[in-house]
Amino acid sequence: xxxxxxxxxxxxxxxxxxxxxxxxxxxxxxxxxxxxxxxxxxxxxxxxxxxxxxxxxxxxxxxxxxxxxxxxxxxxxxxxxxxxxxxxxxxxxxxxxxxxxxxxxxxxxxxxxxxxxxxxxxxxxxxxxxxxxxxxxxxxxxxxxxxxxxxxxxxxxxxxxxxxxxxxxxxxxxxxxxxxxxxxxxxxxxxxxxxxxxxxxxx
Length: 203
Known about the structure:
This protein is an alpha/beta fold. Helices cover 33% and strands 24% of the residues. A hairpin with a 4-residue loop joins β7 (187-192) and β8.
């Protein structure tokens, strides 16, 4: 596996949960894939020359939707077991990085686009995550946070999950706007829709 390794700090309970869950982790349904392709991927405004970071990539569900639309994909997650499954399914379609979105170990202005899908509530330090994504984006780059469900559905789902992620709730839209503004993003748009949620930040 082509992994640019940076060991994440310690063995947090949350990280252990994702490592433990990776093998049985489900990929999106055909309906969800269609929703993502039609409503979320276009927000990235992808170009064939783009270098894209799939942050908190999990098992790599977005990689099939990204790989023919850009030049290169880096898939990042702090769960090595999630990365192993992503690599097993997607092979050399991406470079795999073991790191957190708060500390990516990537270079300044390395990426044209960054996407973080179905992971926002699980990020421990959301302000730092915004700052880090701003740092690694090129001028004019786009950072998209997305979920293939609405905020109410996301929170309701997590309340029924393992205790390690049970309290991972969606931030308010005001908090999200504040995170983006403090990080330095020029424009921020929040799409709080019936079937999906997205935040689009432009550097």
